[in-house]
Design brief:
- This protein is mostly helical.
- The protein has a domain of about 90 residues.
- Helices cover about 70% and strands about 0% of the residues.
- It contains 7 helices and no strands.
- Helix 5 packs across helix 6 and helix 5 runs antiparallel to helix 7.
- The longest helix is centred in the middle third of the chain and has 47 residues.
- It is elongated.
């Protein structure tokens, strides 16, 4: 390390963090890890400074993202983005907001389809459980309602297998129907979701 390097290092250590000298020094030496409180305090200070500083007509953001770009690339980016067409930018923004709305609607629809499939499978599983348990009170309104809805949902799986007892037949057929509801619901949910 020569005398010039030592002088730059001492200047960088004495300079405030805002100056370019300090940022050049921190790029070469390892920085002490900052706590979350220090980061938040620094961000609030930057926002306050940006809010109190007079802004030009093109400056609409409070803080600007920090990126490391070479000077040639940054000047090329500045030249290309300095004069955007207002009509094209407005059109792109309108299309992106429509696309966002469509994505949200598709996400909502996919979630509803999956919820319906899970509820149908749960209802069939609960009906199978009520049938499997011999101690279940068949005259109870809740048990009766679950079994009636289960009979409605089982549809074509009602007579898929005929086993030795009616209880075993119902358990197998309703279990298969519950699995089909879950698989079909997941496939539909994946197909609908963007």
């Amino acid at each position: 390390m020569g005398k010039d390097d030592k002088a730059k290092t001492t200047e960088a250590e004495k300079a405030p963090e805002d100056t370019p000298v300090a940022s050049a020094a921190t790029a070469t030496k390892t920085a002490k890890p900052r706590t979350a409180a220090e980061i938040v305090a620094e961000q609030k200070a930057r926002e306050a400074a940006a809010a109190s500083a007079p802004s030009g007509p093109d400056d609409t953001t409070v803080t600007k993202p920090v990126s490391r770009v070479t000077t040639a690339a940054s000047s090329a980016a500045t030249k290309t983005s300095a004069t955007p067409a207002k009509g094209a930018a407005g059109g792109k923004q309108a299309l992106s907001s429509v696309g966002t709305g469509v994505r949200q609607a598709r996400n909502l629809l996919a979630s509803v389809v999956w919820l319906i499939a899970v509820l149908a499978a749960a209802l069939l599983a609960l009906g199978a459980l009520f049938t499997a348990l011999d101690q279940t009170n068949q005259s109870n309104e809740i048990v009766r309602w679950v079994l009636e809805r289960g009979h409605d949902l089982v549809g074509p799986f009602k007579d898929l297998f005929r086993l030795e007892t009616a209880k075993n037949t119902l358990l197998v057929n309703w279990g298969i129907a519950a699995l089909v509801y879950l698989i079909a619901g997941k496939i539909l949910e994946r197909f609908i979701r963007p």
